[in-house]
């Protein structure tokens, strides 16, 4: 992993320190509206008031009255705080068209992803929120914090891959942070072997990439006899090779990364299976209102007392109600005092306590799902709903 820390990106992804010190404008929500009143307009507002109050002579009065009327119309166009009558400057309520073109399809939404330009996560962010402004982050934790601190609106982060399995770090971070899962997006990951222009496969001794990507290409890399070197992300590996002109190292990355960093593609589709899909979670500060109009999925995390049949009982709350479980993942319950003696455990030290992450096929708007969770809550020592969101049914 030593090389991983060396790899930093030129496009300045958000670093932890950047997230900790947001500038005022950075910290503003995209949806916030600022009234900016041109100086000229404010002056006009004041002079109109003077005309209205100061009329005396009758002819002059009529003239002034009609002018006042005219001006009153202008005045009425001004907002109470001295805003402008220029309709272009006033905030407009969101229309249905805007909702579908600006919010729902994601345009103007800032979306954090881990990695540098050309990373698969960037493509996933753009698939999840078309026309979004994808914001690169150095690591997963930074992406979580960028949402929490209002620097971005959403984060799109990988949670599992069909070949490499779960991305455990993000399971742990889901619990440590307070974001909500508002959607998921599956992305077909097609890996390429990249190298400096003119370098041949036989010149390569090592290959740099994200550990997940290296694992997904295990067979090809073993066949080529290349030493694996872990990097922060696939595109970061490509960038590192390009910027250091490494002629004995290749990178496993996307064809987009090859284009961005000016590398040759020595081999395409080098993943172990042609169907290599990564599932990404869409995370937001607020949960969405779950519906029943289309297939929904709910993700929860819970912990249990130790004892025979307790896990069976927990899973039975779903089986009893015909709710399909899609995925179960267990992670160490780190907060437990490791090594502390547990009375229920005959005084022997208890090192292994777990959190269970479960995805089930139902919406939280469904009474059946609500009952299942009520039932689980009766004996779970901890329970949190991470999100109830539409299943990604898009063709990958
Ligand atoms: O390195 C990248 O390009 C990433 O987007 C990260 C990541 C991952 O974390 O799993 C995402 C998709 C691929 O499965 C490989 C790597």
UniProtKB/TrEMBL annotation:
<feature type="region of interest" description="Disordered">
    <location>
        <begin position="14"/>
        <end position="34"/>
    </location>
</feature>
<protein>
    <submittedName>
        <fullName>Arogenate dehydratase/prephenate dehydratase 2, chloroplastic</fullName>
    </submittedName>
</protein>
<dbReference type="InterPro" id="IPR002912">
    <property type="entry name" value="ACT_dom"/>
</dbReference>
<dbReference type="Pfam" id="PF00800">
    <property type="entry name" value="PDT"/>
</dbReference>
<keyword id="KW-0934">Plastid</keyword>
<feature type="domain" description="ACT">
    <location>
        <begin position="299"/>
        <end position="390"/>
    </location>
</feature>
<dbReference type="GO" id="GO:0009094">
    <property type="term" value="P:L-phenylalanine biosynthetic process"/>
</dbReference>
<feature type="domain" description="Prephenate dehydratase">
    <location>
        <begin position="110"/>
        <end position="285"/>
    </location>
</feature>
<feature type="compositionally biased region" description="Polar residues">
    <location>
        <begin position="25"/>
        <end position="34"/>
    </location>
</feature>
<dbReference type="GO" id="GO:0009570">
    <property type="term" value="C:chloroplast stroma"/>
</dbReference>
<keyword id="KW-0584">Phenylalanine biosynthesis</keyword>
<dbReference type="InterPro" id="IPR018528">
    <property type="entry name" value="Preph_deHydtase_CS"/>
</dbReference>
<dbReference type="GO" id="GO:0047769">
    <property type="term" value="F:arogenate dehydratase activity"/>
</dbReference>
<keyword id="KW-0028">Amino-acid biosynthesis</keyword>
<dbReference type="InterPro" id="IPR001086">
    <property type="entry name" value="Preph_deHydtase"/>
</dbReference>
<dbReference type="GO" id="GO:0004664">
    <property type="term" value="F:prephenate dehydratase activity"/>
</dbReference>
<keyword id="KW-0809">Transit peptide</keyword>
<comment type="pathway">
    <text>Amino-acid biosynthesis; L-phenylalanine biosynthesis; L-phenylalanine from L-arogenate: step 1/1.</text>
</comment>
<keyword id="KW-0057">Aromatic amino acid biosynthesis</keyword>
<keyword id="KW-0150">Chloroplast</keyword>
<keyword id="KW-0456">Lyase</keyword>
<dbReference type="InterPro" id="IPR045865">
    <property type="entry name" value="ACT-like_dom_sf"/>
</dbReference>
């Amino acid at each position: 992993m030593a090389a991983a820390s060396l790899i930093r990106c030129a496009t300045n992804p958000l670093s932890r320190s950047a997230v900790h010190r947001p500038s005022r404008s950075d910290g503003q929500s995209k949806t916030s509206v600022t009234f900016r009143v041109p100086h000229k307009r404010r002056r006009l507002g004041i002079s109109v008031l003077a005309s209205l109050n100061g009329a005396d002579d009758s002819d002059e009065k009529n003239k002034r009255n009609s002018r006042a009327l005219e001006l009153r119309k202008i005045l009425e166009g001004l907002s109470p705080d001295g805003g402008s009558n220029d309709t272009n400057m006033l905030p407009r309520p969101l229309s249905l068209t805007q909702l579908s073109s600006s919010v729902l399809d994601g345009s103007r939404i800032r979306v954090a992803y881990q990695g540098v330009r050309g990373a698969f996560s960037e493509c996933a962010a753009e698939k999840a929120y078309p026309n979004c402004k994808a914001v690169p982050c150095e690591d997963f934790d930074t992406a979580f914090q960028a949402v929490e601190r209002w620097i971005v609106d959403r984060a799109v982060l990988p949670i599992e891959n069909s070949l490499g399995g779960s991305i455990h770090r993000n399971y742990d971070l889901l619990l440590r942070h307070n974001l909500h899962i508002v959607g998921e997006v599956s992305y077909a990951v097609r890996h390429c072997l990249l190298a400096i222009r003119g370098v041949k496969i036989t010149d390569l001794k090592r290959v740099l990439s994200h550990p997940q990507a290296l694992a997904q290409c295990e067979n090809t890399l073993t066949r080529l006899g290349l030493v694996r070197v872990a990097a922060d992300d696939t595109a970061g590996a490509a960038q590192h090779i390009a910027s250091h002109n490494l002629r004995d190292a290749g990178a496993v990355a996307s064809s987009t990364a090859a284009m961005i960093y000016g590398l040759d593609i020595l081999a395409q589709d080098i993943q172990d299976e042609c169907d290599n899909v990564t599932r990404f979670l869409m995370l937001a500060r607020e949960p969405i209102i779950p519906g029943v109009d289309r297939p929904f999925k709910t993700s929860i995390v819970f912990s249990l007392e130790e004892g025979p049949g307790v896990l069976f009982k927990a899973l039975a709350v779903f089986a009893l109600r015909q709710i399909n479980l899609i995925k179960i993942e267990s992670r160490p319950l780190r907060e437990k005092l490791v090594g502390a003696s547990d009375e229920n455990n005959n005084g022997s030290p208890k090192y292994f306590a777990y959190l269970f992450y479960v995805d089930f096929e139902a919406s939280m708007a469904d009474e059946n799902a609500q009952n299942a969770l009520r039932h689980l809550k009766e004996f779970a020592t901890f329970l949190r709903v991470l999100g109830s969101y539409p299943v990604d049914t898009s063709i990958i």
